[in-house]
């Protein structure tokens, strides 16, 4: 068995009131009682995730970040409803247990779910884990296959018909993320105006086959079986899930994907171990997705370019909070530099470099 993902001490300024958490759990989840112990999962730059041990159980609490945030991207109630609809038919979702909009408890809406205990791959593999090239290839294939299974769900049958508007989805994404960037821009980062203009002018038509899209599908949101790390047992962070174009989902996933032979500058953007020997390349991922799903990939450069731009916006929104002193998390200090690298990369894509 390999080491499972573990929480650590709570970061400065992000603590929760243990007595308030305990009272909420005892009043809303059957069988939970006694004092609570709270730790924080250290990774992730968006919604905050805590491990709560109470009454012999391990639960996970999710709440929005402190400081300036995009409200629509941190809708705890919406995320809870998505998990409630999906878990019965797609058990890779954590089982949701309780939700509240009562801000008198923790100062914000939040929800609690069951913990899926396993391995999560981050920039580096866990110390006791080895991933031979053949296993890396197999894991990539399993990852793509699971995404295709998600995209193959009948969203109307599971009650998510009203959780997104497929018509005009791409246009709304380009317009919305462009507005978010301009709103969060700081004077020390590129303006991205040329990139936003290209995305606006090169949008594809609406997909004829909209589906449930995760919108943040990547290795550090996947939980691997500790006894067989090639087996994916959970998918986390459903906060941006909606109904839309599946190729937008794939493009946003590949924005995080650094190939082993990418230039040194791109290697600075490595956030997950996609650069290890045996990992499929971005091109191979796209081809495999097309093979399994049967979908027409079309002009995929747009989707990849948008994915990089969206990632730059997310980084900039977080950096905005650090720049203006709304968070003390020192992990955010270099995000402005990352935003500049994303701009350079997305310009290369739109100038013809492609995947």
| Average pLDDT figure | 93
The CATH architecture of the largest domain is Alpha-Beta Complex
Main sheet overview: 5 strands, antiparallel
- The name of the CATH topology of the largest domain is Aminoglycoside 3'-phosphotransferase, Chain: A, domain 2
Low-confidence stretches: 68-72
Number of domains: 2
CATH top level assignment of the largest domain: Alpha Beta
Oligomer: single chain
* Shape category: globular
**Fraction of residues in helix:** 25-40%
> Main sheet: which strands, in order across?
1-2-3-5-4
Q: What does the radius of gyration come to?
A: 20 Å
Number of E-state strands: 9
CA(first)-CA(last) distance:
36 Å
Structural class: alpha+beta
Would you identify the CATH H-level superfamily of the largest domain?
Aminoglycoside phosphotransferase (APH), C-terminal lobe
Order of helices and strands: HEEEHEHEHHHEEEEHHHHH
Strand content: 5-15%
The total of helices stands at: 11
Topology (SSEs and partners):
Blueprint: H1 18-28, E1 36-40, E2 48-54, E3 57-63, H2 76-86, E4 96-100, H3 103-106, E5 110-114, H4 133-151, H5 169-184, H6 193-201, E6 211-213, E7 222-225, E8 228-235, E9 242-244, H7 246-254, H8 264-267, H9 282-293, H10 300-323, H11 335-353
Antiparallel strand pairs: 1-2, 2-3, 3-5, 4-5, 6-9, 7-8
Helix pairs in contact: 4-9, 5-10, 7-10, 10-11
What distinguishing features does this structure have?
Phosphorylase Kinase, domain 1; 355 residues; 2 domains; 9 strands; Aminoglycoside 3'-phosphotransferase, Chain: A, domain 2; two-stranded antiparallel ribbon; alpha+beta; single chain; five-stranded antiparallel sheet; 11 helices
């Amino acid at each position: 068995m390999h080491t499972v993902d573990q929480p650590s001490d709570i970061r400065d300024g992000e603590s929760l009131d243990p007595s308030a958490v305990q009272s909420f759990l005892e009043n809303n989840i059957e069988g939970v009682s006694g004092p609570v112990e709270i730790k924080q999962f250290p990774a992730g730059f968006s919604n905050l995730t805590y491990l709560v041990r109470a009454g012999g159980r391990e639960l996970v609490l999710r709440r929005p970040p402190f400081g300036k945030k995009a409200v629509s991207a941190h809708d705890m109630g919406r995320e809870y409803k998505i998990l409630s609809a999906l878990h019965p038919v797609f058990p890779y979702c954590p089982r949701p247990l309780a939700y509240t909009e009562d801000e008198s408890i923790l100062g914000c809406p939040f929800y609690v779910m069951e913990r899926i205990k396993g391995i999560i791959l981050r920039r580096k593999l866990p110390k006791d884990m080895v991933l031979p090239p053949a296993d890396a290839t197999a894991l990539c294939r399993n990852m793509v296959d699971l995404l295709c299974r998600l995209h193959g769900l009948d969203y109307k049958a599971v009650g998510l018909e009203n959780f997104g508007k497929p018509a005009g989805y791409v246009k709304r994404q380009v317009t919305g993320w462009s507005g978010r960037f301009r709103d969060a821009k700081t004077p020390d980062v590129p303006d991205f105006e040329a990139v936003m203009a290209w995305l606006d002018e090169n949008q594809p038509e609406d997909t004829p086959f909209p589906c449930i899209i995760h919108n943040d599908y990547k290795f550090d949101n996947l939980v691997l079986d500790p006894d067989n790390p090639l087996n994916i047992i959970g998918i986390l962070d459903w906060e941006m899930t909606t109904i839309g174009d599946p190729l937008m989902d794939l493009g946003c996933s590949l924005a995080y994907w650094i190939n082993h032979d990418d230039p040194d500058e791109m290697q600075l953007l490595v956030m997950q171990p996609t650069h290890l020997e045996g990992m499929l390349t971005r091109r191979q991922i796209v081809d495999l997705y097309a093979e399994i799903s049967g979908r027409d990939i079309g002009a995929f450069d747009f989707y990849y370019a948008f994915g990089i731009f969206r990632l730059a916006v997310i980084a900039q929104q977080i950096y905005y909070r650090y720049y203006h002193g709304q968070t003390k998390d020192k992990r955010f200090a270099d995000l402005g530099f990352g935003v500049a690298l994303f701009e350079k990369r997305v310009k290369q894509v739109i100038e013809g470099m492609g995947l």
